[in-house]
Amino acid sequence: MYRVILADDEPEICRGLRLKIAWDRLGYEIAGEARNGKEALAAIESERPHLLLTDIRMPVMDGIELLQACKRLHPALRIVVLSGHDDFEYVQTALRCGARDYVLKPVVRRDLTALLETVRGELDEEREAARARDASGLQWRRRLPLLQEQYVLGRIYGGEEAFGAAGLEEARRLELAGFGAGDGAASALRFIGVEYRLPPGRLPAGEEDDARLALAFRLLCREVAAQGRWSGQVTPFTDKAYPGSMFFLAAAATEAESEALLAGLAEAILAAAAGSLRLAAVAGIGAACPAGAGSTALRRAYLSAVTAWSRAPAGPESRIVRADGLEGRAARPSAGSELIETIRRHIEDAYKDEISLAMLAERFHLNVTYLSELFKKQTGSTFSDYVAEVRLSRAELLLRDTSMRLADIAEWTGFSTASYLSAAFKKRFGLSPADYRARLREADVTGGGRPTAD
C-alpha cells in the first residue's frame, strides 16, 4: 500500500475524496488529513507518505508554499494539486514547483482514478528499481573481497610496471585506497603474512589438520581486519601458492605508519586466534614500498613478508617477525679497504636487484678494470662470483622453507628465472633445489638434523 495525505481547508472536500475513490483497491491508504500547509508538512514528516493531494488556497501556509517546502525537504514525494477553474495561474506555478499533476474541483471520480493508477504505476517502477539497486549493491558487496584479491594479486604477479590511470580508477572503484596514491590517498604500502600453527593436543589424537580450521582462521583474520582503525586501510587476501596463510596489504601516509598499522593488526590476530580458536600464529611484516610503484617493487615488498614469516622457527609458538634485520651481513674482512667493504655491504643489501660491476664503478667513480682487480685482491673472489655466492646462500636458507615456491625464491634472491637458480644452485652445491629439499625431508624423518648443502 502507498500512503496518501489529503490537505484541504474544507473538511467536506477530504470526506468526499475518501468516499469517491476505492483507495485500497487502487493500492493506497489514507495516512492523514491536514487543514493547511503547515499541518500538511507536519503530517508528511511523521507519516512519510508517497503521495500528497493538496488544495492551493489554504490558510497559514498555502499550497504553493507547501510545494516549495516539499521540493526542498521531501523531493521524492509525488504531489497532485486540487484546484478550481479560476486557479489556473496558481496551477502553472504549482507545476513549476514540482507538482506531478492537477485535478479540477469538483473532483470527477473517473479522472482522479485514472491519475492515481498512473501514479501507482510510477511508484511501482520506482520501487522495483530500488529493489534491483539494493540487490545489485548487496551482490557487489559480497563480491568485493574476491575482486579486491584478484586486483592485488594481479598487481603482485602481473607484468605491468606502473599504475596507469585506468588501474588507479579500478582501485578506487574497488575501494583500495592504497593504490590510489595519485590522489594523495596513501604514500606507503606494506604486506603482512599470517600463518596459523597447531598447538599440541589441539586436535584429537591421530587427526591431522582440518580444512574447517583453516577456513575458520581465514574468516577470523578478515573479521579482525574489518574492525576499527584497520577498516578501509587494510585489504585481506589469500594466495593459492601459500594455502596455509592469510595476507594483508596496508596503505598509510608513511612507512612508519604502515608498520605500526600492521604490527597492531598482527597482535590483534594472534590474540584472537589464541582466544577464539586456540591456535598459535606467526606473522611476518614485510618491507614497505611506495604506493603507485610498479609490479616489481610491489612483488618484492610482498615476498619480503613471505620471507619474514618463513624464517620464524618451527613450532606452535606465536610470534611477529619483521623483514628488517633478518638477513645478517657477511663478516668484515680482516684486511681490506673501506671502499671494498662499502661495496660488499651494498651487494648484501641490493643482491635482489640487478647489479653489475659497471654500475658500481660508475656509482663510486672508479675505472671498471681497477675496481675488478681491487675487489678480487681484497676479497679473494671475483665480483660476479661474490654476487652469486651471496644470492645462493640466501636461496639455500629460503629453500629450507618447503612452502615457498622456487619461482618466488628466484625472484627474491635476484635470479631471473627458477631454472637459472636451479642450474646455479646445482653447480655450486652439487644437487638441485628439489634434491636439497628431499634431503631436508629425509633429515626431518630420521631426526638427523637439517643438512648443509656443500
What topology emerges from the helices and strands here?
Elements (H helix, E strand, L loop, with lengths): L1 E6 L3 H10 L7 E7 L2 H11 L3 E5 L7 H11 L4 E6 L4 H9 L4 E4 L4 H49 L7 H9 L14 E10 L13 H15 L8 E4 L7 E8 L2 H23 L2 E6 L3 E2 L4 H16 L8 E4 L15 H13 L6 H7 L4 H12 L3 H17 L6 H7 L5 H12 L3 H14 L8
Parallel strand pairs: 1-2, 1-3, 3-4, 4-5, 9-11
Antiparallel strand pairs: 6-8, 6-9, 6-10, 7-8
Explain what the structure shows.
This protein is an alpha/beta fold. It has three domains: 2-128, Response regulator (Rossmann fold, 3-Layer(aba) Sandwich); 158-322, Reverse transcriptase/Diguanylate cyclase domain (Alpha-Beta Plaits); 338-446, Arc Repressor Mutant, subunit A (Orthogonal Bundle). It has helices at 11-20, 37-47, 63-73, 88-96, 109-157, 165-173, 211-225, 255-277, 295-310, 338-350, 357-363, 368-379, 383-399, 406-412, 418-429, 433-446, and strands at residues 2-7, 28-34, 51-55, 78-83, 101-104, 188-197, 234-237, 245-252, 280-285, 289-290, 319-322. The strands form two sheets. Strands 6, 7, 8, 9, 10 and 11 form a six-stranded mixed beta sheet that branches. Strand 3 (51-55), helix 3 and strand 4 form a beta-alpha-beta unit. The protein is elongated, with a radius of gyration of 36 Å. The protein starts with a strand and ends in an 8-residue tail after the last helix. Residues 325-336 have low confidence and may be disordered.
